[in-house]
Structures are given as C-alpha cells and as structure tokens.
Design brief:
Blueprint lengths: L1 E17 L11 E13 L8 H19 L3 E6 L10 H17 L4 E3 L4 E9 L6 E5 L14 E5 L5 E2 L11 H10 L12 H5 L4 E3 L8 E3 L1 H19 L5 E3 L5 E3 L3 H7 L8 E4 L2 E5 L4 H8 L11 E10 L15 E10 L3 H21 L5 E6 L1 H6 L1 H11 L3 E5 L7 E10 L5 E10 L2 H5 L3 E2 L5 E2 L3 E5 L4 H17 L15 E5 L5 H13 L4 E3 L6 H10 L4 E5 L1 H6 L2 E5 L4 E5 L1 H11 L25
Parallel strand pairs: 2-3, 3-4, 11-15, 17-18, 24-25, 24-26
Antiparallel strand pairs: 1-2, 1-5, 1-6, 7-8, 7-18, 9-10, 12-14, 13-14, 15-16, 16-23, 17-19, 19-20, 20-23, 21-22, 26-27, 27-28
Helix pairs in contact: 1-2, 5-12, 8-10
C-alpha cells in the first residue's frame, strides 16, 4: 500500500459520479472537516496476499503521524494515483474498512470517503515540516509459507513401522525402494529422455508452441484418445455405486471471496492469477472451487448421504518450466475430479476403502502396480490403525508413511498412488484424501435426523489420475513392453484405428469398403489404405502406427471370405471370418466407451503429419 499523508487546516470532498461499474455505497456524498490528517491510500495488488496485516500496519502508521502533528480528525481517502499496480475492489474496500475500524477502536474521530467514485476535493495544507509525508506499507510473508517438516516410515502388512534406512527390502519390492529413496531419503534420480515422448507424435500429441509453455494440443487421433479417457473416467466414477452428479462450471474464481482465498492459500506459488475489471481472479487448481461453490447452495438431507459430484475440470498449475514433461507435468491439465460428501468420518472411511480398491483395480487392468504414500497425522494413524491395515490388505504390500504436522492441512489422510516409470522414477498418478475442513469453509452442510446442521467430510479423488497422467501411464507401459522385446501398443479400446484394411490393388477397394461398413456398423474404428504404394510398405506403416488388426484384401479373401489377420497383441497371423473378427474385438473392448473416428475412411484423404519415428 502507498499513502500520502497531508495535515490540512481544512479538507472537503463531494461525490460526483461512478468511477467503476459497482462502487461502494456512500455513507454520505460530501464532508467538511478542520484540522485533519488526510490519508490518501492506494491499495496495491501485492496487498491481496495479506490484507488484514496491511490494514493493521497502515492504521498504526496513520495514528502515529496523527499524534505527532496533533490533528483533531482523520480522513481516509481512497486514491488510485500513487501506483499503477492496483488491487481489486473486493480486496481494497475491506482493507479501507479495517483501517477505519482500527482507528475508531483507538478512540479517534475518522471519516472515510467512498471507494469507486470520482470526487472533487479542496485541501489547505498547513505547511509545517510534517504536513506532507509519504509511506509505503508492506508486511512479511504469511506464516503458511514456512517449510513443513515431516517424518517418514515404512509400514509393513502387519502394521509395524520401520525407519527408511533400516528396512530390509524383499526382492519384489524394488518399486517401493525407488519410491522411498526419492521421497524419504531425497536421493538424486538418474536423468534421461523417456521413450514415451517418441510415441506421442504417432497420435498427434505435442506441446502448443503458440501458448504459455506447459500447454498441450491434440490432433484428431490424440483428441479421440483424450475424449475416450474422459468418458472412461466418468464411467469408473459411476461404478462406485454411489449417486454421482455430473456438473460443469467456470475455471475462474474471485480471490476476494473468503472461502476461495483460504482454499487458494494451500497451493501458493503454483496458482495462476489474472486481473479483470478491478478483480483478481485465480484459475482453478482442481474442480474443488466450482463443485463446493455449487453444492453449498443445495438443500441436502441425511437421506441423500453419501453422494458425489464429478467434472473433468480444466485446471491450471504454474509448474516450474524445468520440470515440465509432456503428458505428465503440465500447466493446463484435465482432472476427472470426484468429490464424495459423506455422512460422517466412519462413512468416509468405508467409502475410501471402495475408492482404494477401485484405484488398484484400474491400474492392474493396465498390467501395472502402484506403490503408495500415506500422508497422515500421527493422531489419525494411532486412532485408525485398523482402517489403514484394511487399505494395506488391498495393496498387498508395504507403503511409505509420511507423518505431517497436526492441524496444518484440511485433510486427515492423503494417499498418493505412484508408478515407477521406465527410468526408475516415481510418478504420482491417482490420489484420494479425506477432507474435514472445506465443508465448513464453504458452508456445505446437510440436515441430520434431529434437524441439526452437519458439515460433512468430503473425499477428494481422481480414480485414474488426470487425463494426461492416465495417458502417460499407458505410454510408459508401452515403453516397458518394448524394452522387454514386445510390440508397444495402446489398449484396443483406445486405439484411434482398430482395424486397417489394405487392398492389394484398386480392384479390391470395393470389397474393402464393404468390409469397412460391416466393421463400422459394429462400432469398430476402421480405415482403408487406398494409396498408391506396395502392400509391404502399407503393412510396415500400419505396424509403425500400432494398428491392432491389419487385414490384406486380395483374390483369396474375396473368394473364400476368410481373412488373414495380423494381430499386433499376439504378434501372429490368424485366419478369421469377418464375424469372428467383430466378435473378438467386441469381447476385448466390452465395458469400455466407444467414439467414432472423425477422420475419413480412406487414408488418401487424411491429413499428413510429420513422419512417424
């Protein structure tokens, strides 16, 4: 804050017209005072970080000068001309109100002119050495910025705790060892370029160079994969057999709103901020702000508990540029954010077990395994050991416990689910936490059997991780397969093209078109390589594009109806009827979402990308 302090014989002002669309309602439109210390105050953007402390310190400065010049009155006058970096109206008015309140509490006569108006004023300065003074008001960072000290231990399946340096790892616990070395022992990780980055270009997935760094773009194939994963995230959420409501909303929230401000403090330097119409807005870190702001306006009975809200939310995190990694650490991400509002803590723990089981079920479908970090307070650990052992019984292996300070976080347990990637680096994918603070902060409550208001625990979870990190897991799994001498691939349900038909010449194109219609009618994504090239080259290209099923159409196939099918997953050829092929694909994709391709059937009409590596 910047202040200009003038000791005046006389000072008067009169409100003329609005300077902003919705100014403060004036208590009076004019004032006249004698022997006054006039404090011209400019509230700056930096003051938004700690407005209460700024107001308190400004009031102290005004009172100090007032006593020295022996004035009789104080005038607080909002003045936008001492700085170009102005705070929002929503922050500036409360700061001015708090300055006024603090001065009043000290027993001094104070006037405050209204914020957001053009005003005329007359001032007669006394002209003594202290009659014209300037002040810049700053405060130290809030205490929340201090480093949080935690304590690590490894918890085995019997509930025993082991110091990370003393634990004896079993041969099958190499992933746990990699996690512990990075998180608990803070060991340097080996560098290197991950193989999956070479795969992304196959599916037109890359950084957007015309944006801020850390923002991805998806071409037709990548966009199809993105949409399918998004739909699958909703499908997985609904499989919990709890009422889940799909909602949508904005990604911008006013930091002047107390619940938003308090929640935003938790994310510190990673928040994106923008300034619009005198307001400071934050781009959401996850879907919490929107879902909580919506649910607080619902009338909820105990009979409706538990229930959830879900949105694939575009979320923004100002990650450090040196840590960005395509599909993993990005600045714009898409979180399939599920919040479940529970009757009480016991209900939350019961549902958390279902979530925990579902998270493991999903990663095991991909042939992978998580190693977990349980961020938890010692109090919750000691009081809920049987619950933790139930979690471990699903994991079937030890976990890393991170004991955090009491009362520091809004949750009582936060589980991070981590895979170990091809470079032996831990990568967090999914998460869940039991939140006991935000329902009260946002005013979310239900009415219990006695008619009393209850603030529910809220479970936060992303069951498959962000859309980007689920895709990262798939591509990292493909790189691991290739390292083992197998053909890398995507799951069949996610492959942009599931079947490629290759007529040996143009005379067999009609038969290829006929087969493609049968496949398309069965909700199978198919295309035809009708270009002028040799069959071996077309087959090689289909292999490079990870096409799951490749069919060459020639005289024998037309005459017999029997198709020679190259099956990527099995790395062999099979003789099949078209009906058998359809049945096999439908069986393998059962339970997963389907979307048609937006690309033309004929490869000759498809856009050309950079050469596939």
């Amino acid at each position: 804050m910047r202040m200009l302090l003038i000791h005046a014989d006389e000072f008067s002002y009169e409100v003329k017209s609005k300077a902003i669309p919705e100014p403060e309602e004036p208590k009076s439109f004019k004032a006249f005072v004698k022997n006054a210390l006039v404090a011209f105050c400019t509230i700056e953007k930096n003051d938004e970080k700690n407005p209460e402390a700024i107001a308190f310190k400004a009031a102290e400065n005004i009172i100090d000068v007032f006593n020295k010049v022996k004035a009789e009155n104080i005038v607080i006058y909002p003045y936008a001309h001492l700085s170009s970096d102005l705070a929002s109206k929503e922050v500036a008015i409360p700061i001015l109100e708090n300055i006024e309140r603090k001065i009043n509490e000290e027993g001094f006569k104070v006037y405050r002119s209204p914020f957001g108006w053009y005003k005329s004023f007359n001032l007669n300065c006394k002209g003594h050495p202290l009659s014209e003074l300037s002040r810049t008001i700053t405060v130290e960072k809030e205490e929340g910025a201090a480093e949080i000290k935690t304590e690590y231990a490894i918890m085995d399946l019997n509930g025993n705790l082991h110091h990370p340096l003393e634990y004896n790892y079993k041969p099958e616990e190499t992933d746990l060892k990699a996690l512990v070395e990075k998180e608990a022992l803070k060991k340097e990780l080996i560098g290197g370029k991950p193989k999956f980055l070479d795969y992304c270009s196959k599916f037109s997935i890359e950084w957007e160079p015309y944006s801020d760094i850390g923002h991805m773009r998806y071409g037709p194939e990548g966009g199809l994969i993105f949409d399918l994963i998004s739909e699958y995230a909703w499908q997985v959420a609904n499989s919990l057999e709890i009422p889940i409501f799909s909602v949508k909303g904005t990604n911008m929230f006013n930091v002047a709103e107390p619940p938003v401000k308090e929640h935003a403090k938790l994310f510190g330097e990673k928040l994106y901020e923008i300034k619009v119409d005198e307001k400071t807005l934050i781009l959401r870190y996850a879907a919490c702000h929107q879902q909580f702001a919506m649910v607080k306006d619902w009338i909820i009975s105990h009979k409706q508990m538990p229930f959830g809200t879900f949105e694939v939310a575009d979320s923004y995190r100002l990650e450090k540029s040196g840590e960005l990694l395509l599909c993993f650490r990005v600045r714009k991400l898409h979180m399939p954010d599920l919040h479940i509002y529970c009757k009480d803590l016991e209900n939350a723990k019961e549902i958390s077990l279902k979530i925990h089981e579902k998270i493991y079920e999903e990663i095991r479908k991909l042939g992978r395994e998580y190693v977990s970090i349980y961020n938890i307070t010692k109090k919750f650990f000691n009081e809920n050991k049987s619950f933790l052992l139930k979690l471990l019984s699903i994991e079937k292996k030890p976990v890393l416990i991170n004991f955090v300070p009491e009362g520091r976080f809004y949750w009582v347990i936060n589980v991070e689910y981590t895979i170990i990637d091809e470079l032996n680096r831990p990568r967090e994918i999914a998460t869940f936490q039991i939140d006991v603070g935000n329902s009260k902060r946002f005013g979310i409550h239900y009415i219990d059997e006695k008619g009393e208001k209850v603030y529910p625990p809220i479970i936060h979870t992303a069951l498959i991780g962000t859309i980007e990190r689920y895709l990262f897991t798939l591509l990292d799994s493909a790189s691991k397969k290739e390292a083992e001498g197998l053909k890398p691939s995507l799951p069949l349900w996610l492959s942009p093209t599931q079947v490629r038909l290759i007529p040996i010449n143009q005379s067999y194109l009609p038969e290829a078109l006929n087969l493609s219609e049968k496949l398309k009618s069965a909700l199978i994504r198919v295309d035809i390589d009708d270009r002028e090239d040799t069959v071996p080259k077309k087959v090689l290209l289909a292999e490079k594009e990870w096409i799951p099923y490749i069919l060459v159409i020639g005289k024998k196939e037309v005459e017999t109806g029997k198709l020679t099918v190259r099956v990527r997953e099995e790395e062999k050829q099979k003789i099949m009827l078209i009906e058998d092929l359809i049945a096999e694909i439908k069986s393998k994709t059962k339970g997963y979402p389907f979307k048609p391709s937006t690309l033309p059937m004929l490869l000759s009409k498809k856009p050309v990308y950079k050469m596939v590596k």
